[in-house]
Amino acid sequence: MTSLSPFELIYCALVVFVSYAVRGGTGFGAVIGMPLIALVLPMKDLVPVWTLMGFTSSVAILGRDRKHVAHSAVLAFIPWCLIGIGIGLYFFATLDARMLARGLGIMVIAYAIYAMRSALRPPAKPHYLPPLVAPLSGALAGAVGALFGTMGSIFFVIFLDMRSLNKEQFRATMSAMLLVLSAVRGLGYYAVGEFTVGSFIMFAAAFPAMLAGIYVGDRVQMRLSEAAFRKVICVTLLLCGILLLLK
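^ that's the sequence the OP posted. Answer follows.
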């Protein structure tokens, strides 16, 4: 297990807290934390721990919000996501991950700018949802999650934002999707021997900061209007895109 200095431990705790405060408020957003912690922890050590955190945080959020889950969205999305995980594992072994990350970052930034423009305009008719959006977004979410150990939730956001869910439905449905994705990925990492005693020690150390972040984010979310909530989504997507360009 990698040893960290006191400064690095404080840095990691702050990143976990802030990331999961965003996750607690929006249902996603912890994705921005993993690349920041990867500056001080090897990816081999970090990915299993982040998967455990993704699973437990989804359980915590769904404990109260499960009645808001849009089950039709989950059923339309998850099967394709599972297929995408298999595709992602294949391309992980054959393609340059940095090139993929940069291309994906450009696309996500473009979508965030478009969505922000829409959020700043007066309310319009609901987005038209082409039939191919669910399978394409699901497959990309699974593939990207398998490739990078994170970032797959970007496609959850794109899909759910196009369905014009309210903030309670959005947060609960996002957590349900992440719960399934984290569980499947966790089983995969366990099967190939990526979970170690050190993984569970690091998870236990990060757990209090994660719970505190979810608690604070939940209180902030309750005070956000629908318009402000959409803007938070757009800004978080923009940050994710920038992080992908730098990955």
